[in-house]
Amino acid sequence: MNVKKFTASTSREALRKVRESLGPDAVILSNRQSDGIVEILALANDDAASLAAPAPHSPMAEPAPALDFGTAAPHSHGRVEPRFDDALAAEEPRLAIEPRMPTPKAAALPAEPVRRVVASHSSFATKTAAAAAAAAPAAPAKAAPARPALDADQIAAMVAAAVASAKESAAAEMSGMMSELRAMRGMMETQLAELSWGATQAREPQKTAVLREMLAAGFSASLARYLIEKLPANRDAADSLRWIKTVLTRNLQTMANEDALIDQGGVFALVGPTGVGKTTSTAKLAARCVMRHGPDKLALITTDAYRIGAHEQLRIYGKILGVMVHSVKDEADLRIALKELKNKHTVLIDTVGVSQRDQMVTEQVSMLQGAGANVKRLLCLNATATQETLNEVVRAYQGSGLAGCIMTKLDEAAAIGNALDVVIRQKLNLFYVSNGQRVPEDLHLADPAYLIDRAFKLKRDIVNTQYLDAELPLLMGADQGGYGAAREVHLG
């Protein structure tokens, strides 16, 4: 194969040299222009016919698509060569703008020989294309790569994200607006309540006197406000206070007699925070049961394995009463113990004291409820605790329901209205009250009338809790939280 290079200042001149050197059937391999010089690589027709065809399925058998020479005719040996007339046509636009230099007539390329060169080359290209089509096996047509379709899932996800973001923004704005409205409403209610109670002081002074008495006794401002609003008209201060005591007495649920507890029997667990007197109260109840039915009908169980000496304290009480004390650690031990003691008339369980904010409260309630027996829980309420603390204790130990409660340490409390307020509003059944450490003397049945009267008598020794007339509207206007719970108080 003899490839020759021809250079000239114009394409026509270069093509003329190719024709003169290789003949009209020459094969143009390349045609390029650099620095104003046209360079053509050409091959004689005989040399092109002697080329061997590439092996099938080889890289040379299928040229890369990047080598695109425009409209090309396949060579007879499987190669794609640029056509002579295409190369000439590609140069025509360039020739139209090139300046025509005066050339001698002897050097000009006649039109007729050029047409013969183009016709000869076209005939050769047609023959080689037919031969290549007959020799080469039919290749399956390759489908053009499809354009990537629009990802509908991605668009849907973007739209959903935008909608979710808009909803979150709108919800945040709405929440802020509602918070502002609630704050505004609270301010208005407070101011209106202050104005209302300011007018009440001037219009009905007896209500102001009763309000001061209830607050000094330890009752909540919400309960006092509700009862005073329901106070019958045309009553003096003393008569109004008697009406208040009557309503409070009717709403204080107590055990009429202890036959429902002692004679009926069952399994009772005393629960409550640390230091409220559960162990002492258990011993007092045990003494009452022994005096009524004898030691053989009673069993004591303790779950307090945390405090040092807690088990020994109850064991001493049991030894004095002649009652066996069993110690359990978990729910499985409690199940076994209750199964062994099922023939006992009364079983009292002294539980470990747990803070109302401790997670162990839930575990303790779950253990007692899943013990396999109907365990009635009695909540011990410390009368010296604040009203907010007692409310937290009741909510923590409520569980599926409390059978009743025992009010302890009445002898240490400066006011008991706070504990009675919680018992009334939480609808608890008050069984006993404890006012000392003696066993069993310092455990008494709850008397509603006595407890309410005692609550108002204790306040006489408390000078610091007496509110001034100017302070009452501020206090009544600020306390709005527990007013809804006070609506459940029955007026009789």
Low-confidence stretches: 67-85, 87-122, 135-144
Q: Please state the structural category.
A: alpha/beta
Sheet having the most strands: 8 strands, mixed
Strand percent estimate = 5-15%
Based on the structure given, which CATH architecture of the domain at 253-445 is correct? 3-Layer(aba) Sandwich
Helical amount among residues, as a percent range?
Answer: 40-55%
Average the pLDDT over all residues and give the rounded result. Answer: 75
| Strand order of the biggest β-sheet | 8-7-9-6-10-11-12-13
Under CATH, the topology of the domain at 253-445 can be stated as Rossmann fold
Instruction: Tell me the name of the CATH homologous superfamily of the domain at 253-445.
Output: P-loop containing nucleotide triphosphate hydrolases
Level-1 CATH class name of the domain at 253-445: Alpha Beta
The radius of gyration computed from the alpha-carbon positions, rounded to a whole number of angstroms, is 54 Å
How many distinct beta strands?
Answer: 13
Output the number of helix runs.
18
Distance between the termini: 125 Å
The global form is elongated
